């Protein structure tokens, strides 16, 4: 068992989590010796996860590449991060999650599941069931401009649909969310 603990501490140190850091955190926890021993693995795991964490911008950039938007990736990434952060403070969490799912291509569309389906809003013709179509969908555009009051200049592009345009005012941004 001691060999395994020593191996684990060596591997943790190789990942940037020194064993003495975990030991100090556990020892300073004001718990009994038995409780400290039981708490050691949990603390070591939490430290390893913390050391392996990447900044959220890296993951956002990976997800935005799929959309092939015309704006530079770094700028879009920062904008998406800020808009997501703002969304969770402006609207109810269930609404902000819709923006998150849109950016992550998380809608349950036929294209996402490599199938063919037609527009859920009943567009004439063989319009595909995809987020890319819904950005231009006449039914969605009519609803956005007529019912939500979004100016037509901000409707009809994927970048606007994903709330990543640079010229979105606060009121317009809240309307999108």
Number of beta-strand segments = 0
Query: Would you tell me the structural class of the helices and strands?
Result: mainly alpha
Order of helix and strand elements from N to C terminus? HHHHHHHHHH
Oligomer: single chain
Number of helices: 10
Main pleated-sheet profile: none
Indicate the low-confidence ranges by residue numbers: none
Share of residues in helices: 55-70%
Shape: elongated
Using the CA coordinates, give the radius of gyration.
Answer: 24 Å
Strand content: under 5%
Mean pLDDT equals: 83
Distance between the termini: 54 Å
Describe the fold and architecture.
The chain has helices at residues 2-14, 19-27, 33-52, 56-64, 73-90, 93-103, 131-134, 138-146, 158-161, 170-176. The protein is mainly alpha-helical and 177 residues long. 14% of the residues are buried. The protein contains 10 helices and no strands. The model has no long low-confidence stretch (mean pLDDT 83). The radius of gyration is 24 Å and the shape is elongated.
Q: What topology does this entry show?
A:
Elements: H1 2-14, H2 19-27, H3 33-52, H4 56-64, H5 73-90, H6 93-103, H7 131-134, H8 138-146, H9 158-161, H10 170-176
Please outline what is shown here.
The protein has 177 residues and is mainly alpha-helical. 59% of the residues lie in helices and 0% in strands. The protein is built from ten helices and no strands.
């Amino acid at each position: 068992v001691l060999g395994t603990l020593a191996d684990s501490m060596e591997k943790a140190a190789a990942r940037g989590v020194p064993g003495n850091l975990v030991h100090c955190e556990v020892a300073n926890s004001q718990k009994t010796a038995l409780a400290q021993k039981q708490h050691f693995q949990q603390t070591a795991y939490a430290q390893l996860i913390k050391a392996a964490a990447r900044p959220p911008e890296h993951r956002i950039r990976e997800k935005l590449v799929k959309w092939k938007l015309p704006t530079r990736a770094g700028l879009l990434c920062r904008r998406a991060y800020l808009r997501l952060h703002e969304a969770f403070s402006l609207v109810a969490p269930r609404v902000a999650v819709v923006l998150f799912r849109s950016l992550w291509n998380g809608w349950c569309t036929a294209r996402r599941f490599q199938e063919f389906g037609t527009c859920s809003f009943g567009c004439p013709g063989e319009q595909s069931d995809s987020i890319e179509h819904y950005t231009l969908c006449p039914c969605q555009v009519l609803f956005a401009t007529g019912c939500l009051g979004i100016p037509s200049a901000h409707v009809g592009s994927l970048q606007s649909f994903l709330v990543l345009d640079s010229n979105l005012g606060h009121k317009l941004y809240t309307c999108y969310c």
